[in-house]
Design a protein that fits this description.
Blueprint: H1 24-41, H2 53-66, H3 68-100, H4 102-115, H5 124-131, H6 135-160, H7 163-171, H8 176-214, H9 219-228, H10 232-260
Length: about 260
């Protein structure tokens, strides 16, 4: 270079690598809450229909102090965990079978494609007829909603496993069970765990819908009751708790990814 020394060329090979930021998420949330508060305080929103963050926080504190929040939260979490676990276990078993066995794929994929688009809350009355108005019908609704996305994620994960690795295992005489456990499952795990993020959110959505239809306890029942009484501060407090529940589920999935995918 004329008139000076060499200038280093900036590195451009980052490959869109995700960079974690601990300050940006809370800053964005604080900004959103601030805009919300200014809109209510400035008269741009009716406090009856959109209470201020201070009113929502006060309602949340009141619910926590009275013990009602713990009761509703425990009921919803129990249903979500049970339904998600059942739907995930069945979905993984069926998805792996469809991904590995050609006959299972030929039969299973058309059925999954036909049944997956059906809104699971629409068949809750059918589950109530089968299992009664109690807990089993709500858990079955959540499990059904979780099952189909898990199947699709498992099949997609199996399809992404390099067939050269499977052929190599077969050439070394590995048993079928060893190939599935040591090659197929680890290779499919990244996509399966990504699918878990979706199914956790689906489970939260379905538990709210199921509790609104037939439950005395649970966040869905509480939100419905608060809306009927025009207690919008309590309604939004319940929505905040539901959002926190979804964030907690996503956090657990992130922890599982860091724990199980350290080999990547």
């Amino acid at each position: 270079m004329k008139g000076g020394g060499e200038r280093p060329v900036p590195f451009r090979g980052g490959g869109f690598e995700a960079r974690r930021s601990r300050l940006l998420p809370p800053a964005a949330l604080a900004g959103l809450v601030l805009v919300w508060h200014v809109a209510v305080a400035g008269g741009l929103a009716n406090p009856l229909f959109l209470p201020s963050p201070v009113s929502v926080a006060a309602a949340l504190w009141e619910l926590a102090q009275s013990g009602a929040l713990a009761v509703h939260l425990a009921a919803s979490v129990g249903r979500v965990v049970t339904g998600w676990a059942i739907g995930t276990a069945l979905g993984l078993a069926v998805g792996l079978a469809i991904g590995i066995v050609s006959a299972a794929r030929a039969v299973g994929m058309p059925l999954v494609s036909a049944l997956f688009p059906i809104p699971k809350i629409a068949i809750l009355p059918l589950f109530i007829l089968w299992f009664g108005i109690g807990e089993p019908s709500k858990v079955a609704t959540i499990a059904a909603g979780v099952f189909f996305p898990t199947v699709i994620a498992a099949v997609g994960g199996v399809d992404q496993v390099p067939r050269s690795l499977i052929r190599m295992g077969q050439s070394f005489g590995m048993p079928v069970a060893a190939i599935v456990w040591r090659i197929v499952v680890p290779g499919a795990l990244p996509i399966v765990l990504s699918g878990f993020r979706i199914t956790v959110a689906i489970a939260v959505i379905l538990v709210v819908a199921a509790e609104m239809i037939g439950a005395d306890e649970g966040l869905g029942a509480f939100v419905l009751m608060a809306g009927n009484l025009m207690r919008t501060d309590q309604l939004l407090a319940g929505v905040v708790v539901l959002s926190a529940l979804g964030l907690a589920g996503a956090g657990l999935i992130s922890f599982a990814e860091r724990l199980l995918l350290r080999w990547r």
